[in-house]
């Protein structure tokens, strides 16, 4: 798309919500490129919030092995800690990746692909954020309340993350497309 003023066919496609030729549901009058710019800007705003949180978690986890209490963890707790540390590191990697993709493909007129890949990288990154947060909660539960509580609390954490981050938004998404 070349932007506004490209004729009726171009204007109709530019106002398309999902490339179907129908007007955008939110009533925006924007070209395909403007829509992609807006989507990427929205994604970057979300990533700024997410990156800070996961980087703080990752930094916290990096310091844990150097505390006196770390030596009291059993092998299972150390494995849980290391798995959680790796999950946080992978989350950082995926949540920083959209910026790297944007830099690598800057000026190549490939915004649609960058937006699509960045969206997918963010979803993977969020998955690992959830895994790392549930892992930290599981580790703390095993240290503070070994036994039944240590088994139940992480399960509740996983269930809540799945509900709030997956089930409810996907249910809403499905209801919008009926």
From TrEMBL:
InterPro entries in the record: DUF6328 (IPR046291)
Low complexity bias locations: 9-19
Organism: Paraconexibacter sp. AEG42_29
Keywords: Membrane, Transmembrane, Transmembrane helix
Region Disordered: start-end pairs: 1-31
Annotated transmembrane regions: 47-67, 79-101, 121-141, 147-168
Protein name as annotated: Sodium:proton antiporter
